[in-house]
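Please, structure for the following, as tokens.
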Amino acid sequence: MEKKESRGSGDNRPLRIGLFGGTFNPVHIGHLRAMVEIWESLFLDQLIIIPSAIPPHKPHGAVASASDRMSMLILALSGNEAFIPSDVEIRRKGPSYSIDTVRHYKERSAPLDELYLIMGQDAFLDICTWRDYMALLKLVPVVVMSRPGKCDGNHGSALGAVPAFLKDRISPEYRASTEPLRFDHPSSPPVLVREVTPLDISSTRIRALIQQGKSIRYLVPDSVADFIKEKGLYL
């Protein structure tokens, strides 16, 4: 069940809220470390973690049930009140579209709250295939995270691809601001880019290890490893 944004008694200050979506199939240490670093980098009050119900860009047969992925996320985030697992996309019928999720949170947030949509670089460079992507970019600032194992001469990572993509595929009016790794537009929210620690861990690798009968300890939280074993997932 989704928790509402919390404010203390008499506390009407705006909240800085990150929306961090993904398949989380399963959630792993790389996801969790990226969440921590993005939370610190953006000075967030809350980070809402949103597993997709039916990911539009992934084959359904390779994805554990939404309820199991949500259960693993709850286990992984246990004890961190600032990281809030949300079932908003699981409860919604049909495929999970980011535009619907952002509209949901825009409607339920206070007028002065600041929302940020957080995604990996690979997802961002594919955003032109998303539903209503131009409307999405006009609704909320987007935070693009670096991905492990990719490097070029700009900023030490493949984030150097983001400026060209923005200007060539989205709008030539994007301009780099004086703040590092930020791109402003005259009529849309900014696009921010942030590098996170490049842990070479992937859900694909974890599923492969399970199928090979090998241990996944220290790649996922122990509680998640125990859940996967008890449920017989990914075999």
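The CA atoms of residues 121 and 196 lie 11 Å apart. The domain at 16-200 is CATH 3.40.50.620 (Rossmann fold).
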